[in-house]
Amino acid sequence: STAATAKSEGQGSTLTREELVREGDPTNNVSDAIFTRLGMQLHNRPNHPLSILKNVIYSYFDERCPKMFNKFDNLSPIVSTKMNFDEVLVPADHVSRSYNDTYYIDQETVLRCHTSAHQAEMLRGGNTHFLVTGDVYRRDSIDATHYPVFHQMEGVRLFTRADWEAAGMDGIAMAEKDLKETLEGLAQRLFGSVEMRWVDTYFPFTDPSFELEIFFQGEWLEVLGCGVMEQQILVNCGRPDDKAWAFGLGLERLAMVLFDIPDIRLFWTDDERFTGQYPPCFKDISFWISDSFTENNLCEVVRAAAGDLAEEVKLIDEFTNKQGMTSHCYRIAYRSMDRSLTDEEINRIQEAVRKDVEGKLKVTLR
Ligand code: FA5
Ligand code: MG
């Protein structure tokens, strides 16, 4: 039997390399470094940028679409070649099937190279609106925006004849229009105004097919692929009369733009901003400034009192009263990289900050 049949429900995290790989199997090309990534579930860790992003996208779909999208974020990344390739019509000679591009556990079992691997099983399960989020694996190039393990979110929405007749359109045109509007709306929700462009492309499982690119760090960055689902997939899954759109977006790429993360490797570091284990604590301080007040001087005071526990000092409010006095309110974020801070400790630091702000910066606390 193959590893695919041995795989457990949910993540493959409980299975070790020894359990998955037949000793000396020449068809296995999954290295130990990759095995250690299995089951890490970054996208399900509270406060991890990928999980924050996932939830923002979920809310967008929940608000936009009257019919709920069913959400799946715990499907095993260990899938059959049938799911990963055949069921989404990837031709037998397509490069993505090669040992050079894909991680094979054995001849019939791979680490999914895209979340599209779950399209057919979800459709057969009767889902008409769904989002699948998970880790995907590729033997890919190395640079700041590519990593052998990353995360995708797949979205699929079906339309029935009644839908496109009500819109006075044909089904494919309606699916394409709704797809682009939906994804442009998502980009707007995530980034406000951002420079983006649609690029025509090819996928075996959609026609027409598009990629959305966003301008980031001086270059066009491809953030998702999408299109109108090939009718053959719907036919094979018992939905011959419907039309559908599908997209697959790269969560790291979007999170890098959204959270200003310069390198994709940072998602895997133990930096607490990424594991989210140690929460920040916020304290506000308001005062009437003097002529000589500068923000850098304030930061020096905060640094002197808090050291590296000060994560951010941010002006959140300012106004000038009738007498011409200007008030500033700053929010200070305190966070340790290696432990949870106690209230007592933060209050003591904040008291010291207040005292020095008043004594050294010649401002009047409010
Ligand atoms: C796909 O994976 C298609 N399955 C997407 C799709 C789904 C198209 C449904 C149509 C319908 P692609 O290989 O282009 O397409 O990857 C999709 C996104 O994943 C890319 O736009 C990019 O954001 C991200 N991505 C791809 N390779 C990497 C990588 N090595 N590291 C980080 N992100 C990546
Ligand atoms: Mg591509």
In whole angstroms, the N-to-C terminal distance is 72 Å
Helix content: 25-40%
Low-confidence stretches: 4-13
Number of DSSP strand runs: 14
Q: How would you describe the shape?
A: globular
Strand content: 25-35%
**Cofactors and ligands present?**
adenosine-5'-[phenylalaninyl-phosphate], magnesium ion
Q: Helix-strand pattern, N to C?
A: HHHHEEHEEHEEHHEEEHEHHEHEEHE
User: What strand order characterises the main sheet?
Assistant: 1-5-6-10-9-8-7
- Sketch the major β-sheet: 7 strands, mixed
CATH class of the largest domain: Alpha Beta
CATH architecture of the largest domain: 2-Layer Sandwich
Description:
With 366 residues, this protein is α+β, with helices and mostly antiparallel strands. It has 2 domains: 3-272, Bira Bifunctional Protein, Domain 2 (BirA Bifunctional Protein, domain 2), CATH 3.30.930; 279-365, 2-Layer Sandwich (Alpha-Beta Plaits), CATH 3.30.70. It is 31% helix and 27% strand. The protein has 13 helices and 14 strands. It has helices at 3-6, 17-20, 32-35, 49-64, 81-84, 119-124, 161-166, 171-191, 231-236, 251-259, 272-275, 295-306, 343-361, and strands at residues 70-72, 78-80, 104-106, 109-111, 129-137, 149-159, 196-203, 206-216, 219-229, 243-250, 281-288, 310-320, 326-334, 364-365. The strands form 3 sheets. It has a 7-stranded mixed sheet with strand order 1-5-6-10-9-8-7. A hairpin with a 2-residue loop joins strand 3 and strand 4. Helix 4 packs across helix 10 (251-259) and helix 12 (295-306) crosses helix 13 (343-361). The longest helix is centred in the middle third of the chain and has 21 residues, at 171-191. The protein is globular and about 75 Å long. The model is unreliable at 4-13 (pLDDT under 50). Magnesium ion is lined by residues 222, 225.
